[in-house]
Amino acid sequence: MEILRVVVTGCVGAGKTSFIRTISEIEVVDTDRRTTDQAAELKPQTTVAMDFGRLTFAPNQALHLYGTPGQSRFDFMWDILISQADAYVFLVNAHRPQDFRAGRRMLNFMNQRAQIPMLIGVTHIDCPDAWEPEDIAIALGLQDERERPPIIPVNANDRASVLKTLIALIDEFYKNSQTA
């Protein structure tokens, strides 16, 4: 079976675990534990190692989805997961601009370790005070539109939206594999 390994990453509360749970055809394997740091203000449970889900999309072809923890204290897991990835989705919470600086650092971390297809998924765009994708791109340090990865809105709790995001990522993967 051909397996495409996809990492779903981003800051705390961006929707990584929800994204994987929404689309996985198996019960998601997770390492959620009670939140004990400042992230407890956002949610009671947080990922401390990884989430794992699977989606078969064609005979003998499947996506293995690996969700990273959001906190930088778990960056050793970011390193482990991204080093084996074929592509990744970077989720950004559109109404939490206080997370954009940490998101920029995380995005740089991932890009330093792997030159693989990726896209930015913007979550929570329906919330009050949500930033526009263009402004989020600038906040993440992605000023050059020619070198910018695709940026698409995604509702991590909506199967059709998550599927649309994964299809866009697979398109990027195959586009990049043809130019390599």
CATH fold name: Rossmann fold
Separation, N- and C-terminal Cα atoms: 23 Å
Query: For the record, what is the CATH homologous superfamily label?
Result: P-loop containing nucleotide triphosphate hydrolases
Number of domains: 1
Which segments are poorly predicted (pLDDT under 50) over 5 or more consecutive residues?
A: none
Instruction: Give the CA-based shape.
Output: globular
Structure write-up:
With 180 residues, the chain is of the alpha/beta class. It has a single domain (2-179), classed as P-loop containing nucleotide triphosphate hydrolases (Rossmann fold). The chain is built from 5 helices and 8 strands. The strands form 2 sheets. The chain has a 6-stranded mixed beta sheet with strand order 4-5-1-6-7-8, sandwiched between helices. Strand 6, helix 3 and strand 7 (118-123) form a beta-alpha-beta unit. The longest helix has 21 residues, at 159-179. The protein is globular. The model has no long low-confidence stretch (mean pLDDT 88).
